[in-house]
Amino acid sequence: MAEQKEKPRKVAAMGMVPYEMALGPTWTRFFEGFKEKKILGTKCNKCGRVLVPARPFCSRCFEPMEEWVEVAQEGTIVTWSYVNYTYFGVTPDMIPLIGATIKLDGVDCGTGMWTQIGGFDIKDFELVTKKVKVGARVRAVWRRKRQGNFRDIDYWKIIE
Amino acid sequence: MGRAVAVIGTGQTKHGRRDDLSYPDLVREAVKKVFEDAGITPRDVDGVVYGSMPSMMEGVAYNHFYFADALRVVGKPLLRTETCGSTGQSVAHTAIHWVASGMADVILAIASEKENEGDAQATMMTILEPFLQVVIGGAPIAFSLQSREWMGYYHIDDAKAREAASIVSVDSHDGGLANPLAHIRVKLSKEDITNAPIITYPVRFYDVCPISDGACAVIFASEEKAKKICKKPAWVKGIGFRGEEYFIGDSSKAVWQSTIEASKEAYKEAGITNPLKELDVAEVYNPFSYQELMFLECLGLCPPGEAPDYVIKGTFSPGGELPCDPSGGVLCTNPIGAAGLIRVAEAALQVTGKAGEHQVEGAKLALSHAMGGAMQFNGVTILGSEL
Q1: What percent of chain B has pLDDT over 70?
Q2: A79 and B149 in contact by Cβ < 8 A?
Q3: Can you give the residue range of the structural domain that contains A70?
Q4: B chain contacts of residue A133, beta-carbon cutoff 8 Å
Q5: In what helix (H) or strand (E) does residue B29 lie, and over which residues does it extend?
Q6: What is the tally of structural domains in chain A?
């Protein structure tokens, strides 16, 4: 190719598609529970596991999970991470934040839905490493106004 | 596993920020190189396998249509395979299955990513539905959560894990310096890494892979063709792949069954009983240095919970018992869709003595690996210098 003077350039492009995603009966009921400050799981009648979020069918037995169980709002931290960086969906006003997976009492899996640890000054990193540990006990703190989605649990409070 | 299969050529682009080329041109760079390396022409190829991340990462759905010319696929069958981060392993396995089955003799496998064209994190968050498993911050937090779960499960203290992760990062960056095609080529000290800003604690800046553009192509052939075409093929000794449930909390990510089972299957096929002793080099998928620690255990390269001890005593460092990621690994080069196939290509270079400055002296048996999905998939391919 002959020598080219201009620097290769780029062209701006944008793709945006709005969706309406069906929750189905199970996840609809699960989020209805949030409105009443209830965490609902479903139980598999074959293997006996209780899972949160509730499931329409057992991932292992493939049986429908039709038995509803209201589960505890306390549990233990399976894992956590301290986010101190902005990403897509994480704006400067949101950081720092502490994401976590929590095993609720009586539930047979970890739950990690927009699960954030809070209720104290999480900007104090030393304090975070003192208080937030794998195995630490936590309790759900609900928003005053609930709309039936994952944001209804404002944060999980460390129980001393 | 069906018929014997060999790698008869590899081609990689210069990885990095490749604003200089359109995406098809980037793919062509790897395809051109693989044909030069194998010494054959597209006429000798029976079919093409291609994969990338969800193609909205670069804004063109089904980008293999866009690349048809660059993939040299006109007039040939084409399969697309994708499993997120493990796409490259899946692409290799699809090609291997195709040849091993006897339905084809020569298959061109290609994988690519041009991450700088869009917002990689935004695309990665779309692999989850947006109402139940909302992982804030995409991949870095997901894999930091996994690392912390592993540290918590085995009661590994922060300081020890930190030291081991820093060694992984130093070694990988030294590898990147020795690999002219790597994206990140910089000399780092342990202090640079330990003092870097927190991204998603415990993960700091130099524990995280870059956003890379790059493509990789590998040609697989049957035994008969390989012996005819290639003086020194790299033989596929064993492969393994496993998937897991969708919900991240349903199973342990500290004792990661899909990694464990995928590698066990590959070892069994390859006749490997003591991978640490028998393997000469490993290209472990390490987008995060902490994650490599967990992989070393789950791939059976050291006992569970002891990866930091092994790393600290130098087992996986250059000159150690089993050098890991001499190419710089994913920590230095991460065009995601291609990253798993780059591991396969690097393993082939190692067992054929063609790795240049980052060659592990006398390597005869190499492991390559990648993981992907919502911590859902693991693939392993073992290559050897002997059939």
Answers
A1: 99
A2: yes
A3: 24-158
A4: 152
A5: helix B23-38
A6: 1
